[in-house]
């Protein structure tokens, strides 16, 4: 549960900072308004989105890759999330739907969602604090 909350906070802050860098202005009329609306919207939307996407992805990785390390699961999850983001952007580009003025184009969307998917995969799946080193080897060296 702690990892899920950290992932929601990382995603929310990343989304809010991205709205400062390239403000879409559908949230507000200046960068500060965009930041706070993106922060509030992220805190409400990302838990639902991650519960629908990340929890089944983790269950699937554990089911289909049971004897792999958590780092392997993190890399596979990052690739799955990145491919979902790429497929979403490519589908919109190939459909011929023009991007709206506040969207900054599909290239910006793809760059943001690529960074976003890797950040979410790292914060949710990467084994922080777990060491793969041999403890007896470390004791013998000191």
Characteristics of this structure?
76% helix, mainly alpha, 142 residues, globular, 0% strand
Explain what you see.
- The mean pLDDT is 84.
- The two termini are 37 Å apart.
- The protein has one domain.
- The longest helix has 34 residues.
- The chain is an all-alpha fold and 142 residues long.
- Helix 1 crosses helix 2 and helix 3 packs antiparallel against helix 4.
- The protein has 5 helices and no strands.
- It is 76% helix and 0% strand.
Short description:
76% of the residues lie in helices and 0% in strands.
The arrangement of helices and strands along the chain is: HHHHH
DSSP helix count? 5
Give the DSSP E fraction (strand runs of 2 or more residues).
under 5%
Mean pLDDT, all residues: 84
Largest sheet: none
Total discrete domains: 1
Low-confidence stretches: none
Report how far apart the termini are.
37 Å
Q: What is this structure's SSE topology?
A:
Elements: H1 2-21, H2 31-64, H3 70-95, H4 105-125, H5 135-141
